[in-house]
Structures are given as C-alpha cells and as structure tokens.
Amino acid sequence: MDPARRLALFEQTVLPHLNAAYNLARWLTRNAHDAEDMTQEAYLRAFRSFDTFQGQDGRAWLLAVVRNTCFTWLRKRGNQPVEEFDEQMHGAADESPNAESVLIQQAALGSLQECVEALPLEFREAIVLRELEELSYKEISEITRVPVGTVMSRLARARKRLQECLAGALS
User: Fold this and answer.
1) CATH number, domain at 164?
2) In angstroms, rounded to a whole number, what is the distance separating the alpha carbons of residues 149 and 158?
3) Which of 11, 69, 111, 140 has the fewest C-beta atoms under 10 angstroms from its C-beta?
4) Exposed, middle or buried by CB within 10 Å (0-12, 13-18, 19+), for 62?
C-alpha cells in the first residue's frame, strides 16, 4: 500500500478514537500528563503496526494498543506516586449552575472519582472500558486478552467494590 493511502486509511480508522484513547490512558495512568504521553506513544505504535490491523473495529484495536502501552510503562515505572485528578479542570461545564447543585454534583463526582481511582488496575480498566467507553464484553475481552467470563467477573467485582465504596463515602 502506498504511504499516502496508508496514512489516509490510518487517519480514517484510528484518529476518530483519540478521545477514547486518552480517556483509557488517563484512567490507567491516573495522571493527565502521563496520559497525553501514553496516548501519543500509542498512536505512534499503532501507526507503525497499522499493517497488522485486520479491518475489524479500529476503536477496539487502538484501545488494545493504548492498554499495552500503558501497562508496559506502568511496569517499567513501578509504584511511584501519581498526580491527583483535577475534576474542575476535566469536568464538564454546566451552563447555568446554582451554588447548591454545583456543590452536590462536585461531592458526588468526587466520591465516584475516588472510588474508581481506588479500584485495582484490572477492575478500573474493565469499568472504564465498559461504562465509559461502552464497549461490549467481547471487545473488552479482545483488548485485555482475557476470556469473556473473566471480563464479566472483573466487572461484577468492580461494581460491587464501587457500591461499597460509595455507600461508605455517602454515610
């Protein structure tokens, strides 16, 4: 395939999923700057290996590359401290908020954010891919390279931990 056609096909297939790639990297790295770096690195890796793309779902293929890039980086990095997520910087803006609704929303989002951040990496990854990226169990299975049953188990355990964490945070 000529380079111009390859680039155009890559941009058409993979580039629309930049937000999903960053979102997954953000949740896995727990740091906006690292997520930007990992997303960029994943896009470079995806472009270099685009010849291996079989024409299925570009989003799932790219998220697998992002996941592998992040996990490689996390393994090399070890257990170093990470920057806290700034909800105000990354949160959606409300057009006409009143003070009470803003405080309630921030408290709820803060609790949920903390609970998701507290999940083990495999559970956090499953929740992000299913609930935020709305991928099917099969797509998550392909991305994480684990059986669908394992995906379902991780999701069930993650949801249970989130419920327990939120119940504790709200009481």
Assistant:
1) 1.10.10.10
2) 14
3) 11
4) buried
List of residues 6+ apart from 66 with CB closer than 8 A: 21, 24, 25, 38, 39, 42
Q: Are residues 8 and 46 in the same domain?
A: yes
Q: pTM of the prediction?
A: 0.69
Residue 29: CB atoms within 10 Å:
22
8-state DSSP, 145: T
**161 shares its domain with 124:** yes
Question: pLDDT digit string (tens) for 69-120?
Answer: 999 999 998 854 444 434 444 444 444 556 655 555 555 556 788 888 889 9
Contact predicate 41/67, CB 8 Å: no
What's the CA gap between 47 and 49, in Å, rounded? 5
Pick the closest to residue 25 from 125, 126, 113, 114 (CA basis): 125
